[in-house]
Amino acid sequence: MKLGQWIGLIALLLSLYILWQIKGVLLLMFAAIVLATTLNRLAQRFQRSGMKRGFGVLLAVAIFFAGVVGFFWLIVPSFVQQFQELTYRVPQGIQRFNSWLLHLKTLVPPQMIPYIPDINSLIQQAQPLINRVLGSSFAFVSTSLEVVLKTLLVLVLTGMLLANPLAYRKVFVRMFPSFYRRRVDGILDQCEVSLGGWITGAFIAMCVVGLMSVTGLSILSVKAALALGVLAGFLNLIPNLGPTLSVVPAMAIALLDAPWKCLAVLILYFIIQQAESNFITPIVMAHQVSLLPAVTLISQLFFVTFFGFLGLFLALPLTVVAKIWLQEVLIHDVLDQWGSHHPNETELVVVPESPPLDENWTAETPINNQERLTKDTSDQEN
């Protein structure tokens, strides 16, 4: 390899290393981009109805904050009250279970008594797990300030991107060679459309799952049915794992009334999950986002391994964007063109020179950046 190639390789490896070190910041930036895209599409809907952009943006932001406040207003008070009652009833349940075991020992033959578990031994065996859970809780509380700061950072970045999205888009496009900038602009358009489709489909599925959960829990007379239904709809944004996480608090609160309700809630959430995965999501996402189920699950495992909970939450939009870039850049522009020259024909690729990106350049510039003219050599000879 020549000296210039070595320098280029070292620069590439160094850039990848730096990007890996700041992966947390990049993930927060992507979260801000997704949120800004969502609010921007909502503001554009208001603009199409005749409203000015400034008022449309303010209205979209107001709706977002109203939704966040309403979510916590529904979830937090109900859950605090129910889980306080749960912590009060759990010791009573343990004591009742211990009395039932003692009564059972008086009914079974003496040779079966050693096989009946002792509640004290069960508590001792579960003590390491309890300590681990408590330790994780304390660690969670200790990092709450970091979570708040990251949330504020995402909100501030979202506001900046939403105020003037074309300026930041122009800066990103300038990072590519001049002959490829129109192509990058077209890819960004596809990413925006796909993200908007995912947001629309996910919102519809979230509302349907939340409504089904509230209805089913109300029929079962489970306390805090509205809060549990809203939580189930919100966690439905996390495919595969979200419904599993949402069933735990619902079963715990149902256990306060009767054990059979706990089993009924489990069956209810299983039915809702089957309906969502087999009917709701295929219908809603059919014209929005096309991702194979295995790809979705693998992306979740990948992003949660390297980026934690936020990576799990953003796994699907990250996968949607990564799919477009791989499909358009790697497959379409590189692999599909590799070896496309045939022995009996020549291919002439004419790439018109792109004008410099000055202050008057906008993202609405046409993306047709190349024209192909193929001539057969036999025609040339004639």
The dominant shape is elongated
The beta-strand count equals 2
What is the chain-wise order of helices and strands? HHHHHHHHHHHHEEH
Helices, by number, come to 13
**Quaternary structure state of the chains depicted:** single chain
Low-confidence stretches: 136-141, 342-382
What's the mean pLDDT score?
75
| Rg from alpha-carbon coordinates | 28 Å
Largest sheet: 2 strands, antiparallel
How much of the sequence lies in strands comes to: under 5%
Report strand order across the widest sheet.
1-2
> What is the percent of helical residues?
over 70%
Structure summarized in a few sentences:
The chain is mainly alpha-helical.
Structure overview:
Mean pLDDT is 75; it is low at 136-141 and 342-382. The chain has 13 helices and two strands, in the order ααααααααααααββα. With 382 residues, it is mainly alpha-helical. The protein has helices spanning 3-21, 23-48, 53-107, 119-142, 144-163, 165-173, 181-219, 225-235, 242-254, 259-285, 293-313, 315-335, 377-381; strands at 345-350, 371-376. It has a two-stranded antiparallel sheet. Helix 2 crosses helix 5 (144-163), helix 3 (53-107) crosses helix 8 and helix 7 (181-219) runs antiparallel to helix 12 (315-335). Its main location: membrane. Keywords: Membrane, Transmembrane, Transmembrane helix.
List key phrases describing it:
two-stranded antiparallel ribbon; disordered C terminus; 382 residues; mainly alpha
List strands and helices in order, with pairings.
Elements: H1 3-21, H2 23-48, H3 53-107, H4 119-142, H5 144-163, H6 165-173, H7 181-219, H8 225-235, H9 242-254, H10 259-285, H11 293-313, H12 315-335, E1 345-350, E2 371-376, H13 377-381
Antiparallel strand pairs: 1-2
